[in-house]
Design goal:
The protein has 183 residues and is α+β, with helices and mostly antiparallel strands. Helix content is 39%, strand content 24%. Strands 1-2-3-7-6-5-4 form a seven-stranded antiparallel β-sheet, with helices on both faces.
Length: 183
Amino acid sequence: MKRTVVIMLIFVLLATLAAGCSGDNNNGKDNTSDKSAVSASVIEPEQLISKEEAEELIGAAVADMQKSEQDAVGMKQCLYEFTEEAADSFLQVTLNQQAFMKNPNPAITPKSIFEDIKDNFEEELTLIEGVGDEAFIATPGIHILQGEYYMIIAVGNTSDETNRNILKAAGARAVENLELLTN
């Protein structure tokens, strides 16, 4: 629980830094046209793991999906919640991508965020081979760097072997789907 709070604080800090260092010189002008130019290349997290794929991975029907985003760090997130037979289960997919960053800052990229998180958990992470360019399991789940995309998939306690297996399968599926979307 403490590590989850630390990770969330890191994301909030990075978002605040990105917003504060963005150098917005628009003098109050609307950025809609700038954002719509990149929106065609923005990937949604449910494109990495669909509702059907989430159901297959967890073994229960999805009851609800919630979405959130933070454009200062290019983060889009979806949370799948499951029906009664797996009411305590969830699957969360987070994607950081440069194409979604509002006023991108060259110092804050999905790769730099991945590296900062990795450095924070250096002694407590488990490296995962064969998933993305680089991957590890640490709170809150599997962290994956694939090209210039940073993904986090969470399903619960990362010490639980069943959850680790789900994370590895979900990570491989997300990377496969990302490659289909970007090639």
